[in-house]
Amino acid sequence: MLNKVKSVVGKKTEDTHEYIVALDVGTEFVKALIGKVEDDRIEVVGVGRQHQKLSDMHSGAIADIAGVVENCEKALQKAEDMAEASPRSAVLGLAGELVKGGTTTIKYRRKDAKTALEIEELEGIMQKIRDRAAARTRAQLAWESGNKELEIRLVNSALVNVNVDGYKVTNPIGFQGGDVAIQLFTAFAPMVHIGALERVSDELDLALLSLSAEPYAVARSVTKSEADNNFSAILIDVGGGTTDIAVVNDGGVEGTKMFGIGGRSFTNAIAHEFDIDFEKAEAMKLRSNQVEEKSKTANRVNEALEQVLDVWIDGVVLALSEFDSLDHLPPRVLLCGGGAGLKPLLKRLNSQDWHNDLPFTRQPVVKLINPDEVTDVVDATGQVKDHTMITAMGLLKIGYDTLQTTDTNQTWRDKLNALLRV
Predict the structure, then answer these.
(1) Which residues make Cβ contacts (< 8 Å) with residue 203, sequence separation at least 6?
(2) Largest distance between two CA atoms of the chain
(3) Residues contacting 124, CB < 8 A, separation 6+
(4) Please, what is the Cα angle at 71 between 336 and 186, to 5 degrees?
(5) Could you report the per-residue pLDDT of 99-134, keeping only the tens digit for each?
(6) If you compute the radius of gyration of the chain from its CA atoms, what whole number of angstroms results?
């Protein structure tokens, strides 16, 4: 369970509250949130951010453990000072092109259709799904990386659908039937990435509640529960080094996709166009996003951004085209992450051409996720102001989910997810 915080630097805090630390280790910034669990919600009581150096991260993954630890420590210290607490139980996010998430369906013919389904039987089915998903992910990563010996580990799992004799059920326990079909979302990551984050956690003296694929964390941020059947959307997190996409359909995460184009790609295009260093190019990018100018320089900046944007849009279309198991894609696109606020990016997504070859039933509505839209997480600091903090808020919810599955009063869904949760 979580640490009960008694006092920090002489400042008294109540010892009856439980706290969670969320660390979003992004390519551009480390973002730290401290959440206090209050009944059925989490209050954000501490916020910290720290800029990363260019050499600290590569394509969303840690490249310099010592550098990232230093940045995390600074971000965490800011959050602790604000919260007047130093909790140690943490959830960290995983990103990068080699983090793979998808759904697997297994159909199971029972020996005796007249006996009622029990939790032990479902556990066996779930284990088969995990094994099948792991084998598929290993084969995919071996093909992409050229490394057949790449070790992976499950980082997230969540039930999507359960059907008994063709009927969808919300709780299969006690049902009779001969055919059971279970659809499960799983996310796997290479051990090299997991090991780096575990080392960061150890260096910061944090106790890991959970590691989570960041697209899954974004999905959890805007769904009421892991079985929220009323929610469907495409979620796009545009970070500094990667773009992470999750498709949620009727409350279930259909899968996640990542590709290596993010905010730094746009900055690098400006740096190349003007033959300047990264810092100056970043300043030009931010200025162009804040102030509309009509000049030769502004036109060159826009042209550089548009060239990268062409490739980025192609990446989004390619990623969404791989969700071929869906009859149609949700016509709602929700964005978060630092790069999502780039005006040309939003303008392009709101155009009427990029989605023409995808199975949308109507023009998709595109908008940034507002922190107020994150369910069950409330900001008590006034510092969580925009879409850049959504992933960290989702990580807080992952931590809360993990606590629920360690509670003695577990539902059948909690027990099955606990079996597969690492």
Answers:
(1) 65, 69
(2) 76
(3) none
(4) 45
(5) 888 888 888 888 899 999 888 888 888 888 888 888
(6) 22
Strand 233-238 with 243-249, pairing: antiparallel
Lookup: tokens for 155: 């980082």
Q: CA-to-CA distance for 84 and 379, rounded, in angstroms? A: 16
Spatial CA neighbour of 23 closest among 205, 154, 274: 205
Q: Residue 276: which H helix or E strand, with range? A: none
- What pLDDT does residue 171 have? 83
Are 155 and 133 a contacting pair, CB within 8 Å?
Answer: no
For the residues 243-263, what does the mean pLDDT come to?
90
**Mean pLDDT across 12-24:** 71
* Higher pLDDT, residue 50 or 171: 50
Quote the tokens at residue 302: 């826009």
Query: Where does residue 24 fall: left (phi above 0), alpha (psi -120 to 50 degrees), or beta otherwise?
Result: beta
Cα(64)–Cα(62) distance, integer angstroms: 6
Q: What are phi and psi of 232, to 5 degrees?
A: -140, 135
Maximum mean pLDDT: which of 88-97, 250-259, 262-271 = 262-271
Per DSSP, helices labelled H in 97-206 are 119-145, 191-203
Beta bridge partners of 93: 212
Average pLDDT over residues 259-268: 94
pTM (whole model) above 0.85: yes
3-class SS at 337? coil
Q: Can you list the pairs that 230-234 forms with residues at least 24 positions away whose Cβ atoms lie under 8 Å?
A: 232/330, 232/332, 233/330, 233/332, 233/333, 233/334, 234/320, 234/329, 234/330, 234/332, 234/333, 234/334, 234/364
Closest CA to 336 of 250, 268, 252, 394: 394
Q: What is the mean pLDDT of the chain?
A: 87
**CA-to-CA distance for 205 and 355, rounded, in angstroms?**
46
Residues 269, 27: Cα–Cα separation, whole Å: 17
Residues paired with 181 in a beta bridge: 107, 163
Backbone phi and psi for residue 234, each to the nearest 5 degrees, phi listed first: -100, 125
Residue 136 region by backbone torsions, left for phi larger than 0, else alpha for psi between -120 and 50, else beta: alpha
**Residues comprising the chain, all counted:** 422
In 3D, which of 104, 113, 102, 85 has the Cα closest to residue 12? 85
Residue at 415: amino acid letter: K
